[in-house]
Amino acid sequence: QVQLVESGGGLVQPGGSLRLSCTASESIFSIYIMGWYRQAPGKQRELVASITRGDSTNYANSVKGRFTISRDNTKNTMYLQMNSLKPEDTAIYYCNAQHPSFSSSRFWGQGTQVTVSS
Asked: Residue 76 belongs to what H/E stretch?
């Protein structure tokens, strides 16, 4: 069972930056599609950004130009650099690993809270 552990959340003022990290217990980045999701109170969980094993990236329109997803395969760690943060970015952010061929092979982290407020 793959374990994903997020870190880096916290409280930041509007316009500020945070970097989230997700470390996997196994070397899965060469296979799995890795992604960041978020869920705000009263809303559905939504995809924020994803990265494939070929380094193709995808972003939600709401974060394009502000967030950057990346990974370090040698550290089994994925990152989400978040700049120009807005109050509407406030949510619990979850790390996700999805096998590209087997939909049942999917793992989630426990989540990390990001709060953007003055």
From this structure: none
- Among the listed residues 89, 88, 95, the one whose alpha carbon sits nearest the alpha carbon of residue 110: 95
What does the pLDDT read at residue 104?
Answer: 87
Q: Which two tokens stand for residue 14?
A: 């509007």
Rounded to whole angstroms, the Cα distance separating 96 from 22 reads 9
Q: In whole angstroms, what is the distance from residue 90 CA to residue 113 CA?
A: 8
pLDDT single digits (tens) 74-96 = 999 999 999 999 999 999 999 99
CB 5 within 8 A of CB 75: no
What is the token pair recorded at 67? 């967030």
Strand, coil or helix: 74? helix
Q: Are 24 and 108 in contact (CB under 8 A)?
A: no
Sequence-distant (≥ 6) Cβ neighbours of residue 25 within 8 angstroms: 2, 3, 4, 5, 76
Radius of gyration of the chain (CA): 13
Q: Give the amino acid at 77.
A: T
